[in-house]
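Bench notes, afternoon.
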Amino acid sequence: MARIVVLGGSGFLGSRVVEGLRKAQADVSVASRKSAVSVDATKPETFSALEPFDVVVDLSDTVSNPPDALIAWCLERGKTVIEATSEAPCVERLMKRHAAESKGRLILGGGIFTGVSNLLAQHVAREVGKAESVTLGVSSSPFSGSGKGTIELMLRAMEVPAVRYENGARVEEPKMRGGPRLDFGGTTRSTGYMSLAEPPMLHASTGAARVDVLFAPKPGFLVPAFIGMPQWLVKQKWFMAFMRGYFTVLRRVFLKSVASSVELVVTARGGGREVTRCVKATDGMEAGGFALAAMAEQAAQRSDWTGVKMIDQVCSLEPVLQRANQLAGTQLMTVTPALAALPAGQTAAAQEAS
């Protein structure tokens, strides 16, 4: 049995991942600065505490503590690393750095988004055959039912350009701008282009020439608020410090016990076909934790490759959703319309093994 360690396993999301893995009867441990497995992503001298483990799930705050050195250390020793960050610059940096084969395996994506969002996009892309375009919409409250790392991700997303792909070329949006209204399974919401990690990931894994990822924050007034925010103001340290404090008060006082629902919708077009499917989760943090536990459980069973892959190149949507719901003992996530069976040989594992 593979030994799994969750870096940040005592945190808001990490504790749910650990709970799911323990329910799966996995051999799982918690790593943090203060736990028995004491690891600090900024201090290489602590990395040796990870030596006994086969799979490392990283849930640390990559904005404040870049994981590059820790991941390189793990890959040099032939370990499997699941990097679950949603920070776009970090994901793109790791994709480039580990493009060449290594002794270990780096899996980018894990949780609800990135994670289930990627699996849903890959499934829908395969339903149309060869996808020419993929549009992913993510709807969630950026502050309720979340931890400190989520606030840092939101602040970083306000600072850096959003990325999309058009005719196979990477395009940067210098600031958040409005996108089309999307139907999230019965509710239409306003969207905007914001820095999320999925565009380069889905471009790499699906091969679609056009990839758009749109964010629909809840409540909806946040869309014009983000769009109207001057870029010069976002670059001011004092303003970002104010926003950090403001969001922290919202999270710890007013929204402390409020779970954030998440809706994901994907439309893929190709070969004259168009397919749309939606995943809904009443509690996005709980769903993300159990989904990541299911992903880690499945990834731990595969050692037939090395290098870097996206989560949707290693796991498939339906098995992950079924296992996550099973581990939680309730219907955490639902898909509408119901999933269609993919053509023979089109599961992620089958495609990667070929």
